[in-house]
Amino acid sequence: MIIAIDGPAASGKGTLGKRLAHHYGYRHLDTGVIYRAVAKALLDRGFDLTDEARAVAIAMELDPENFGHPELKSQRIGDAASVVSAIPRVREALVNFQRQFAADPPGAVLDGRDIGTVICPNADVKIFVVADPQVRAHRRTLEALARGEAADEAMVLADILKRDERDKNRAAAPLKAAEDAHILDNSNLDVEASVSAAIAIVEAVRAAR
Ligand code: CDP
Ligand code: CDP
């Protein structure tokens, strides 16, 4: 069983993916972390984010052990990730790792931008999570404040909108819902209600088999 979750920035994909994986006893991969790790490695070494050869080399030697680094969650790295992730060869270098993760038993939940369209087009269940931009900006601001970082909600919103535009309009694996994805708008749902709605989608798909 493979569950694909896609959606724009701060829509709640990661939180939902983690909770669904826990509910079903599956493994979970937040694929955004992979692009964030490539971006961070480039910045740490003083390379340009559009340096294709270096970005591809870094993507090919990524160590999943580093995916838990707290700095990866920052806005700066998220923004840099959306620049690096637009390079087709960087994306290609990361496909096998993601597909292998998805295929291993007993099942997996992957969240990102192109899981249902490119990485796992045959996923058993596809969920495309959306929420109003203002709601998403508010959630990210609360998270930053909880981490003790300064955060201006209007700036967070501008950053989210800019990143969504870049992700939607790139040529390689743009952010979009797969035709067979179930749209889940959680603008007015708390985490528990959002998880329940997603479980209902998964159960409906299972029952229909
Ligand atoms: O992975 P993505 O960037 O899409 O979102 P996230 O990292 O899961 O962050 C979403 C934030 O919104 C978290 O702080 C959640 O607690 C909160 N949230 C949510 O995920 N789902 C809701 N229905 C409501 C709030
Ligand atoms: O958590 P949030 O939604 O803010 O960002 P993320 O999921 O960690 O993704 C960071 C950036 O990586 C996105 O803006 C995308 O440009 C890129 N990304 C991607 O291109 N494909 C994926 N499957 C996941 C992330």
Automatic annotation (TrEMBL):
The keyword Kinase applies. It comes from the Bacteria. InterPro entries: Cytidylate_kin, Cytidylate_kinase_dom, P-loop_NTPase. Pfam families: Cytidylate_kin (PF02224). It is found in: Cytoplasm. CDD domains: CMPK. One of its GO terms (molecular function) is CMP kinase activity. GO terms for biological process: pyrimidine nucleotide metabolic process. Keywords: ATP-binding, Cytoplasm, Kinase, Nucleotide-binding, Transferase. Its main location: cytoplasm. ATP binds at G7, P8, A9, A10, S11, G12, K13, G14, T15. The keyword Kinase applies. GO terms for cellular component: cytoplasm. Residues 3-202 form the Cytidylate kinase domain. It catalyses: dCMP + ATP = dCDP + ADP; CMP + ATP = CDP + ADP. SUPFAM superfamilies: P-loop containing nucleoside triphosphate hydrolases (SSF52540). Belongs to the cytidylate kinase family. Type 1 subfamily. This is Cytidylate kinase. It comes from Bradyrhizobium lablabi.
